[in-house]
Amino acid sequence: MKLLHFSDTHLGFSEYHRIDPQSGLNQRERDFYAAWEKVIDTVFEHRPDVVVHAGDLFHTPRPSNRAIRVALEGIQRLSDAGIPLVMVSGNHETPRIRSTGSIFEAPALFPNVFAAFSGRLQRFRVRDVDFYCLPHCSLTEELEQALEALKAEVESSSAPRVLVSHGAWTSKSFYGMGEFNEQRLPDLEAAAGVSFDYIALGHYHRCIEVKQNACYSGSTERTGFNDHGSRCGYLLVDLESGERVFHPLAVRPMIKAPAMDCTGKMASAVYDELEAFSRTVPEGAVVQIVLENLSDDLFLRLDLRRIDELFSQTLYLEKQLFRSAPREGDKPAASAIRSLPVEFEAFLQKQAEGGFDMEKMRRLGEAYLQE
Ligand SMILES: [Mn+2]
Fold first, then answer.
1. Which of 248, 275, 296 is the last residue of a domain?
2. What is the CATH number of the domain that holds 118?
3. 288 and 157 share a domain?
4. For residue 146, how far is its CA from the centre of ligand 1 (angstroms)?
5. 159 C-alpha vs ligand 1 centroid, how far in Å?
6. Residue 295 C-alpha to ligand 1 middle, in angstroms?
7. Is the separation of the CB atoms in 82 and 112 below 8 Å?
8. Tens digit of each residue's pLDDT, the chain (371 residues)
9. Do the beta carbons of residue 210 and residue 225 sit within 8 Å?
10. Alpha carbon of 39 to ligand 1 centroid (Å)
11. How close is the Cα of 38 to the center of ligand 1, in Å?
């Protein structure tokens, strides 16, 4: 059996207030849809027997109408073609309160879709293979019960078995994303007391083997600079031979520049170095620069607009500025300049005693910042 394993598509994610001129959508939101659509397209090239999505299909438990439409369009294409899709919900889309209802109830209505999303283990027999699906569980007790159910279920069947789950695999290494609600998964083979033909994992945004037959496929786009060094893509898995091939997706470059030590530098030297670095940056990239050890004088002199102009080819430039450590007796300085909307909000908070119309001020400021 040939599987296509992918994960962490985070449909509905958006960032940076940059608009795609053609669609009028947030450009990063559009990027995430494009990556999802690309994987669905490749399903029709590779013709796997089963497609597996290991969670975080959506970025939130209540995705936008558009995110839902994009997801259902892709799922409908698979369903219509008779290609089974096995999926589990991840921590991003699983509601914390059961009564909210899961967005996965919608895709689960399609023929050929096998979705586990109710905080419990579900087994689906698809093309003579048992798929044990362990979705994100909001409660520790749910996970404990699911692990017990897993142990009981595997004993009752001798068919080939694949396990699909979403969470931070925790054995010799820890594969977490640093999210407050992430689920810690023990070695699931040890927990089940059997071995699986394959374990398809989601949550960690990097394609990595956690043990010989267990892999994260990685995400299909990058949700932040923590993912900057990882490749995005999907895995093709041959259950009989155990062969796995990672297929990278061509996604928007995300580049984190090495931190620049500005000790003793003039502003002109900083611009020159940034300009030289900028020449290595491709069109449309998302870039982070870090300037460290800025003297108070240099901090005031630096023209941030000029820096933006040096990187005009980028989709977004994130600037992190750190002043040099205060001398003995100095008051601690603000450590970084955050994005304009964040700084503006912080400024508003400080004016709370000012006695003017805060809401009006906020609306005005936001309108200017959008321009
Ligand atoms: Mn996740």
1. 248
2. 3.60.21.10
3. no
4. 18
5. 29
6. 40
7. yes
8. 999 999 999 999 999 988 988 889 999 999 999 999 999 999 999 999 999 999 999 999 999 999 999 999 999 999 999 999 999 999 999 988 878 889 999 999 999 999 999 999 999 999 999 999 999 998 889 999 999 999 999 988 889 999 999 999 988 788 888 888 889 998 999 988 999 999 999 999 999 999 999 999 999 999 998 888 889 999 999 999 999 999 999 999 999 999 999 999 999 999 999 999 999 999 999 999 999 999 989 999 999 999 999 999 999 999 999 988 766 655 555 556 677 777 777 777 776 555 667 777 777 777 777 66
9. no
10. 19
11. 21
- Cα 263 to ligand 1 centroid, rounded to whole Å: 40
The one-letter code for the residue type at 274 is: L
Q: How far is the CA of 201 from the centre of ligand 1 (A)?
A: 10
* 57 CA → ligand 1 middle, Å: 9
What DSSP designation does 128 have? Answer: T
- Residue 318 structural domain: 254-337
Please state, in angstroms and as integers, the Cα–Cα distance from residue 239 to each residue in 3, 105, 165, 198, 356, following that order: 7, 29, 17, 7, 67
65 and 204 share one domain = yes
pTM of the model: 0.84
Helix (H) or strand (E) holding 340: helix 340-350
Distance CA 261, CA 95 (A): 44
